[in-house]
Amino acid sequence: MIDSLYQFVTKIGFPDPLHAPITHIPIGLVIGAFLFLAVGIVFARKNVLTTARHVSILAFLFVFPTILFGVFDWLHFFKGALIPPIKMKMILASALLVLLAIGIILGSEVRLHAAPMLVVYGLACVAVVGLGWYGARLVYGGWSPGAAQAAPPGGGTTVKAAAPAGQKIFADNCSACHPNGGNVVTAELPLKTSKKIADLATFTAFIRNPRMPNGSAGDMPAFGTDQVSDKQAGELYSYISSAVSGWK
């Protein structure tokens, strides 16, 4: 269902993450609530303090659709991989919800709780700045699923033209966790030296049912035939085989 949604929005001209356009709404509201609160405290204006609470309620409400679409983006673009920036965004988003809830509760009696509210809203601002930082790291820090297409292996050298279809499959499904043939989740198990790419049969069996060396389930999601067909698995393997010599 999620992939169908992204196919639809891509057809109408929006191939980018869905949560990006609405992320700025709760961020702006959180910063606005903090500024209204600070002005209300400095000038002792109760009506401005009340406005800060109302703005924080709007921020709290808008966080939910932002998180929902963020989860959709995570499942679609990163296949549910718990890479470090994603983990930090989850922690910060949870903290932001808690802080906003506390601020809303304290704001019901602004005369008694103005100073604690300033601390809470200040921490909420720190949380949204952190969310923006880690979001930028996903895009510009080499974690983006499209990184493999934007920066070919070998520091800019041209990838062999033998597997262009496989390169796109890699960019869409693998590059977030395996940029430049590495492994950002389990660094000691890089793709470029893995025994799982010894031959196509071994590779295909592994992506269908990925396991750690000790046989336990790891963080890598399984790719069924509905996500990566056998033909696409062959194209992906062909790309990896041609690219591995350029991965440093």
Which segments are poorly predicted (pLDDT under 50) over 5 or more consecutive residues?
A: 147-162
Indicate how many domains the architecture comprises. Answer: 2
Continuous helix count: 9
Assembly state of the chains shown: single chain
Name the average pLDDT.
86
Rg over CA atoms, rounded to whole Å, is 23 Å
Span from first to last CA?
A: 37 Å
Share of residues in strands: under 5%
Helix content: 55-70%
Quick one: overall form?
Answer: elongated
> Strand pairing plus helix content: what structural class?
mainly alpha
Main sheet record? none
Protein model, in words:
The protein has 248 residues and is mainly α. It folds into two domains: 2-140, no CATH class; 147-246, Cytochrome Bc1 Complex, Chain D, domain 2, CATH 1.10.760. It has nine helices and no strands. α2 (20-42) runs antiparallel to α5. The two termini are 37 Å apart.
Layout: helices, strands, pairs:
Blueprint (H helix, E strand, L loop, with lengths): L1 H10 L8 H23 L3 H32 L6 H23 L3 H31 L6 H4 L13 H10 L26 H9 L21 H14 L5
Helix pairs in contact: 2-3, 2-5, 3-4, 4-5, 7-9
